[in-house]
Amino acid sequence: MSASALISGIGWALLHFVWQGALIGCATAVALIAMRNAKPQQRYAVACAALLLCLTWPACELAARLSGGSAGGAGMQVVARLASAARGADLGALGWLQDQLPLIVMAWAACALALALRMGLGLMWIGRVAKVHAGNAQWQATLSAMALQCGVTRAVRLRVVDQLASPVTAGWWRPVVLVPAALVTGMPPELLEALLAHEMGHIRRFDYLVNLGQNVVEMLLFYHPAVWWISGRIRAERERIADDIAAVHLGDARRLARALSELEKLQFSGHHLAQAANGGDLMARIRRLVRPDAQALNWKAAIPVLGLAAACIAGCAQAPAEPKAAATIIPAVANFASCAKPLWPKESLRNEHQGTVTLAFKISTDGQVEESKLRKSSGYPLLDEAARVGIEKCRFRPATQGGQPVAAWMNMQYVWTLK
Fold first, then answer.
1. Residues 6+ apart with CB under 8 A from 113
2. Residues 60-118 pLDDT 10s
3. Domain total for the chain?
4. Does some domain include residue 86?
5. In the β-sheet with 399-401, what is the strand arrangement from edge to edge?
6. Helices 225-250, 207-220: crossing angle, 10 deg rounding
7. Which portions of the chain are predicted below pLDDT 50?
8. pTM of this prediction?
9. Which end of the chain is more exposed for a tag (fewer CB within 10 A), N or C?
10. How many Cβ atoms sit within 10 Å of the Cβ of residue 199?
């Protein structure tokens, strides 16, 4: 597999995910609106499935492209249609996008690498905190007792940390609960216990590992708003699930609500953890714990989502009626800066022969001439041969099909004139 094929495959997969992600986001929004009164576990499962689809759809398309398949045919049609509206010609727009793929892939790789570095630094920070910062024997014993009651058999560490906004559960192999020092000294013990019960709910469900997977998806597909929105919904539903687990463990949902209310009143400096499994609106969570009423449908918020979803579905439904874009070949283009002017045969020049010759060239995937044919003679064999020999020395941008370089024939004319 050549580097150009790899870049082309990655580039087109990234471009196609623009409409794929929009479609997934719209479908997820419609599903979550319909499930507004369902259990948070069900909404959480739908959002997780949507985020997983955001990763697997472009991954499968990339794999199919690299294996020589014709994946993304509908996607090529959608891109071609959008490009046609913007530039007036499908082939011209797709050719322009094909030329920009190296720059697109380079920019994507740079941003993804920066986010990966940030995620790595977050994991390193958590590891250092777990080793350097001290725990609290009393609260460690309380947390360990909670773990046994919840059926958690693995060891759960507790660390007291300054400059932290709220308790969080983090890590990737062994979970660690980070508790702000201000809570240990300033919050009533029964309320802090309620917050620790909430964190135990995360540990029981391995939420810290799911959160790590979310960070990977956000790192790879950072450029799409739908990914961030779906990921945010996952975190919000995850907090509600942990709230329910804590309320059952405590036997008093209002106690957890008071703890969350007290947490909101306290002021901390906002040290954001890249791997923290936190999220959700505190006030919304408090209202839900105190008064878990059914939610009415907000049609004003739902109408734009439904409209966008209908537009995406309609666009994709019409695409198969057109010729398959994956079968469309974008012709090769000569790089005239690399061409030398064909030499005029001395005999033809002496006899003042003129005319137009039409030649066909087969351009390989690396832009070289593999074969040539005479389509229409100028009337003078010497001029025909001189044009063929001269043009064969040119470099070409190879033709592409489905975003991948292919060998293809192209026609060129050369005009011999003495004027």
1. none
2. 988 888 876 544 444 444 444 444 444 344 455 666 777 788 899 999 999 999 999 99
3. 2
4. yes
5. 329-330, 399-401, 404-406
6. 170
7. 70-90, 267-278, 317-327
8. 0.65
9. C
10. 27
